[in-house]
Specification:
There is one protein chain. The protein is α+β, with helices and mostly antiparallel strands. The chain has four domains: about 70 residues; about 240 residues, Beta Complex (paz domain), CATH 2.170.260.10; about 120 residues, 3-Layer(aba) Sandwich (Rossmann fold), CATH 3.40.50; about 240 residues, Ribonuclease H-like superfamily/Ribonuclease H (Nucleotidyltransferase, domain 5), CATH 3.30.420.10. It is about 25% helix and about 25% strand. The protein has 21 helices and 38 strands. The strands form six sheets. The chain has a twelve-stranded mixed sheet, sandwiched between helices. Strands 2, 4, 10, 11, 12, 13, 14, 15, 16, 22 and 23 form an eleven-stranded antiparallel sheet that branches.
């Protein structure tokens, strides 16, 4: 848990584990995995979020972008995003509609308001060098047009189970000899029934009751109808099954290609996720590689391991590891979230089966799966229905046998294991050439399978064999400036590496900060390492312009958390300006205690360093240099800058992170720039519960930041750019309708009616499945840093663009998608894109460009520190420093 100082910020970020769950349901056990409770009334439908309720300003200066046909296309397609797996961001896959408007408890579609740049009708830029790219999208080509028909299907008496409805209709597939798609209510086929209302009788197998199925003709569907995306989505899921892919947690994986990593006691399964939607001019299918990680040991083995380590705290430690975790059953590859360990239940307990007889879990597993239970005393794992399950009437509580469950994903211990992560990366960080090969091979399998060909022919569509081609633009590199002299042009860097660590080595910082009094804490056995660090630290700080005296030393007799806490209290005084602590390992509770004392109680910047990072003589100079830069930032200094095209602007980064100490509570961090160079920030946090919109504290934060800016600069800022990270497509309505309103309230709270700043609100999305490839001398390569894409794969109803801002040494680079949902800046797209790219150069924990604008990364670091370690508001004395680096 030491403060990072040697690694690039992660491309992704951890997500809150606590998802919204259903209410506690008392349940009498009936059968494993499916213990159903009947609700007395239907769950209330989710509130509808419609574009009409969004602030009108979201639409920019005009109600349409370009020609009427484009706007009509955007309106038709904006809500359509359907896929065969689940993904995040713009490639996330909405579940196929059940057809007849809104099904029970189903939210209505949210449509993006059409947003255009406030400076004109086009969202495309022109600056930069044109580069030829390919993207991991395949066009969905229309075959010669034929007719398709939509029907509505009803069952009498009502059948609640969608699976049973599908099975009954399948018994009369003779009605549709050319095939059909059925989602439980709506049916689509290329066969037209003779009657408007067709009625058939099917016998229900469970009780031999006759079920009347009524199939009503609704309309003829043209190949351009948006509902065809829905049909194609259902068909693509069927295509996966034709290729023997297995659905696991709404993704599809090739079980036959499972790779075991026995040394790491892990295995992973390769797969693909797909999403079909309308893009700028064509319907495209996004295809991306996915990997499912699983541990080889079962949950029962995990129980035994925890009991062996600490019998007294066995239950508490097991719950800490399991609650909120995702497990997969070994007998049917289904995944479940663990909500409770039922210590008072065992596999010897009996439950009622559907036909009324009782059976133990042991016998049930033997009869249904031919699995023998090894430990009859093991407890059961309980998984409650999620909110979305309850909304569609599924109140099933599932009980799982630990012996037949394996943990999925990577835990903190595995993530901290360098050798394990390197081995995983060797298999899963696929370079561009290999990625393109895997994607095209997958599409070849799809397009040559006779069953796929026949089904797709019935729907008059086929998938292209080739990746889509795109013209991108490279913006070039920004000059890095390390002086306040306005005439300085600074220096460039190698754009292929997007790194300037060599160029700044030994250079004076933009604003170095010195110290009068600092404290160094370490254990007695680390005395020699501490002495080497101090001398090296002084040596690297001097040319940077940072002058440090010798520190006050506090020595710990052992490495216990309590010992470090006591030495800190005895050594640190109100005059201390910096605390540096050298720790023997990454023990989390000790790190948390140090940070709470320094950040919350004392309001003093602190730096925690693991002994291991200082133990190598050949790297200590490099490590000390990075620590010096970090310390300078924590003390309020500046390292470098880029040219800012605006005289009086503010940039705000917003991000959130779950609070690991309180389930269903999250931390929202806002980081606001305070100077012309965009290098000094005012940082604040607030707490909110799950399902709660941004709290009123956000208004106070923005108001406080504006007042602080005015105190420092003698005027209020304009324009103001808000970069909002941590938002999925499903949250865009709340962001658009709530957070922008909160910002306007904050401006009104200043009490100056003449202050009307130019605002832009940009949603930053890096959890996407889009990838770009550039043709090079050795085949497909990663696009260079500064490559922007604003056509072909962007969305017709959005003002959006993709930016590849960082460089990676392994695997395929991940672009970031920027969705401008509110724009009053009067900037043409070129300036918005270039300004965003500039901001990726200003993150001081990495001497290079990063994946998101620096204020977003700072907000993430702050939210992470508070959510993981502090669990309370930092001391306001630190608000104007980057104390969380």
């Amino acid at each position: 848990m030491a403060d990072s100082h040697t690694s690039k910020p992660a491309a992704g970020r951890a997500r809150a584990r606590g998802r919204a769950r259903g209410p506690q349901l008392a349940a009498k056990p009936r059968r494993p995995e499916e213990i159903t409770q009947q609700q007395t009334q239907q769950p209330a439908p989710r509130p509808v979020a419609s574009s009409s309720s969004a602030p009108t300003e979201c639409r920019g200066r005009a109600a349409q972008r370009g020609a009427a046909s484009t706007a009509a296309l955007a309106q038709q397609m904006s809500a359509m995003s359907v896929g065969a797996g689940s993904g995040g961001g713009e490639d996330g896959n909405a579940k196929a509609s059940a057809g007849r408007g809104a099904n029970r408890g189903r939210a209505e579609k949210y449509e993006d308001p059409v947003v255009i740049p406030s400076a004109g009708d086009s969202k495309r830029g022109s600056h930069g060098t044109v580069v030829k790219l390919a993207a991991n999208y395949f066009s969905v080509d229309k075959l010669p047009q034929t007719s398709h028909y939509q029907y509505h299907v009803e069952f009498n008496p009502t059948i609640e189970s969608i699976r049973m409805r599908k099975g009954m209709l399948y018994g009369r597939k003779d009605l549709f000899p050319r095939g059909y798609q059925f989602d439980g209510m709506a049916l689509w086929a290329s066969t037209k029934l003779q009657q408007v209302m067709t009625e058939v009788i099917v016998k229900r197998k469970t009780d031999d009751e006759n079920i009347r199925i009524q199939i009503k003709f609704i309309k003829e569907v043209s190949p351009r109808d948006p509902v065809m995306l829905q049909i194609l989505s259902i068909q693509q899921r069927k295509n996966f099954t034709y290729l023997d892919f297995k659905e696991i947690d709404r993704q599809y994986y090739d079980i036959a290609q499972t790779t075991r990593l026995d040394q790491q006691r892990m295995e992973f399964i390769p797969g693909f996720t797909t999403a079909i939607r309308q893009h700028e001019t064509n319907v495209l299918m996004n295809v991306e590689l996915k990997f499912k990680f699983m541990r080889q040991e079962t949950v029962l083995q995990l129980f035994k391991e925890q009991h062996k380590k600490n019998p007294r705290d066995f239950r508490a430690n097991s719950e800490k590891l399991l609650l909120g975790a995702i497990v997969m059953t070994t007998y049917n590859n289904k995944t479940y979230r663990i909500d409770e360990i039922k210590w008072d239940m065992t596999v010897k307990d009996k439950f009622d089966q559907k036909r009324g007889n009782q059976i133990t879990y042991i016998d049930y597993m033997k009869q249904h799966y031919n699995l023998s239970v090894e430990d009859p005393g093991q407890p059961l794992l309980m998984s409650k229905p999620k909110v979305k399950d309850l909304k569609r009437g599924d109140v099933t509580i599932r009980y799982l046998v630990p012996e037949f469950c394996v943990m999925t994903g990577l835990d903190d211990e595995k993530r901290a294991d360098f050798n394990a992560m390197r081995e995983l990366a060797n298999h899963t960080r696929v370079p561009p050439d290999g990625r393109v090969a895997k994607l095209t091979h997958f599409m070849k399998r799809i397009n040559t399978d006779p069953r796929v060909i026949e089904d797709m022919k019935n729907w008059c569509f086929k998938f292209s064999d080739n990746l889509v081609s795109i013209n991108g633009r490279n913006l070039g590199c920004e000059n890095i400036i390390m002086t306040a002299d306005p005439s300085s042009n600074g220096f460039g860097y190698n754009i292929k590496e997007a790194d300037w660590s060599r160029e700044i080595r030994g250079a004076r910082l933009l604003e170095p900060v010195g110290l009068q009094h600092w404290v160094l804490i370490h254990t007695g056995r680390d005395q020699a390492i501490a002495n080497d660090f101090v001398s090296t630290f002084e040596r690297v700080c001097r040319p940077m312009g940072m002058l440090f005296p010798r520190p006050t030393i506090g020595i710990c007799q052992d490495d216990r958390t309590g010992t470090f806490s006591q030495v800190l209290k005895n050594t640190v005084s109100p005059s201390t300006q910096l605390v540096v602590v050298i720790v023997p390992n990454n023990k989390k509770d000790r790190y948390d205690a140090i940070k709470k004392f320094c950040v919350v109680d004392m309001g003093i910047p602190s730096q925690v360093i693991v002994t291991r990072s200082l133990s190598k003589k050949q790297t200590i100079m490099s490590v000390a240099t990075k620590i010096a830069i970090q310390v300078n930032c924590k003390l309020g200094g500046q390292v470098w800058r880029v040219k800012n095209p605006f005289d009086n602007c503010m940039v705000v980064g917003i991000d959130s992170y779950h609070d690991s100490a309180q389930r269903n509570r999250s931390v929202c961090a806002t980081v606001c720039s305070m100077n012309q160079f965009l290098t000094k920030y005012y940082s604040q946090v607030s707490f909110q519960t799950a399902k709660q919109e941004m709290s009123d504290a956000f208004v106070a934060q923005v108001t406080a930041a504006l007042k602080n800016y005015k105190n420092l600069n003698k005027k209020l800022p304009s324009p103001i750019f808000f970069y909002r990270d941590g938002v999925g497509d499903g949250q865009l309505p709340q962001v658009r309708e709530w957070e922008i309103n909160q910002i306007n309230r904050a401006i009104e709270a200043l009490g100056d009616p003449t202050y009307q700043p130019k605002l832009s609100f940009i949603v930053v999305n890096k959890r996407i499945n889009t990838r770009f490839f550039q043709s090079g001398t050795r085949g497909w390569e990663n696009p260079l840093s500064g490559t922007v894409i604003d056509t072909v794969v962007t969305r017709p109803e959005r003002y959006d663009f993709f930016l590849v801002s960082q460089s990676v040494r392994q695997g395929t680079v991940g672009p970031t998608q920027y969705n401008v949902i509110y724009d009053r800046s009067n900037l043409i797209p070129d300036r918005m894109q270039r300004f965003t790219y500039k901001l990726t150069h200003l993150y001081y924990n990495w001497q290079g460009t990063i994946r998101v604008p620096a204020p977003c990364q700072y907000a993430h670091k702050l939210a992470f520190l508070v959510g993981q370690s502090l669990h309370s508001t930092p001391n306001p004395r630190l608000a104007d420093t980057l104390f969380y680096l």
